[in-house]
Specification:
mainly alpha; 18 helices; 2 strands; two-stranded antiparallel sheet; 72% helix; disordered C terminus
Length: 328
């Protein structure tokens, strides 16, 4: 898959190029900063799950993956404005480098380019991407509505991440399968995989915000607490009356750096991380189950590996002593 992902990098830079050098520089900033390209990778893998030879992806599959990645990148530009973030992927965020107005417009530009690509790939792909952008916005709004609410429910959290994260990974898989003209049951299975994987992915990401370092994340750790975004580990920690007695008063819009660090310590020391990790495992297992009927092709193996290895992202920061996978 590495040669195909290298093609994705080139295509991303090509499609964001503008007649204006300044806009091109801003639009390509996070592309050049690197990234795992999970979403284009899923589009490529999903497109090839029935191919025993693992042939190179077609240009339409590459472009479908790029369309999804540009939505993701555009949302990061907007997220960093909302969070007043300083860094992203270990480089200065676009808003920190060029200001909020330019960051917002550059994010809009990336969404526009994504929509153009999707339209070129057909009405169904365009519809999937449009619906996904809508769901992203809905998920983000749900998250903003619950900001600084220490009584945030698990249902509110789940609906939010289903929109802002899971929907985009589901779209990546679905678009790859559609563009490759796979049978409809396989297209649906790929969508289910992306949905479940996306849920697990976001829960893991939220755990890492509590337990990892700035260097491990490539962005400030504990920023969700500062922004009043109380994720699954925090929600479960607050359900413990003993922990909540000290934790709840810390979680305010005026939280200091010291209070943030103490809040992270309290969540780490509680059962909140362990419970959240079990939830992530459940979603990862659901993702793996959607692949059970597929043949043993390179594409299917890549998706299985992604599902199996997802929980391992927390192994190093959490510590092997507390990290053990339940038998399936």
């Amino acid at each position: 898959m590495e040669p195909d992902l290298a093609r994705v990098e080139k295509e991303l830079l090509r499609v964001v190029a503008s007649d204006g050098e300044f806009l091109t520089e801003i639009a390509s900033h996070l592309i050049l900063a690197g990234g795992k390209r999970v979403r284009p990778g899923f589009s490529i893998a999903a497109a090839s799950v029935l191919d025993p030879d693992g042939a190179a992806a077609t240009i339409d599959v590459i472009r479908g993956g790029c369309a999804v990645e540009l939505v993701h990148l555009g949302s990061l530009y907007h997220d960093d404005v909302m969070d007043d973030a300083i860094t992203r992927r270990s480089v200065k965020s676009v808003n920190a480098e060029w200001g909020n107005l330019r960051a917002i417009l550059a994010g809009d530009y990336l969404l526009g380019r994504s929509s153009e690509i999707a339209a070129e790939l057909g009405t169904e792909v365009a519809g999937v991407l449009a619906t996904t952008i809508t769901r992203l916005c809905e998920g983000q709004i749900l998250e903003l509505e619950s900001a600084y609410h220490t009584d945030r429910s698990i249902d509110s959290y789940t609906r939010s991440i289903a929109g802002k994260t899971s929907s985009l990974l589901a779209a990546a898989c679905r678009i790859g399968a559609i563009v490759a003209d796979l049978p409809r049951p396989v297209v649906d299975a790929m969508t289910e995989f992306g949905t479940a994987y996306g849920m697990a992915f976001q829960v893991v990401d939220d755990i890492l915000d509590i337990i990892a370092t700035d260097e491990q994340l490539g962005k400030p750790a504990g920023n969700d607490l500062v922004e009043g975004i109380y994720t699954l580990p925090v929600i479960h920690s607050l359900a413990d009356p003993v922990v909540a007695r000290e934790l709840r008063p810390l979680l305010t819009p005026a939280i200091t750096t010291e209070e943030r660090d103490r809040a992270r310590d309290l969540v780490r020391e509680s059962e909140g991380v362990t419970i959240a990790l079990d939830v992530a495992r459940t979603w990862a297992d659901k993702a793996a189950a959607t692949l059970s009927a597929l043949p043993d092709t390179p594409g299917a193996r890549a998706l299985r590996a992604a599902s199996d290895h997802l929980i391992e992202r927390v192994a190093a920061p959490l510590g092997r002593k507390r990290f053990s996978r339940k038998p399936r």
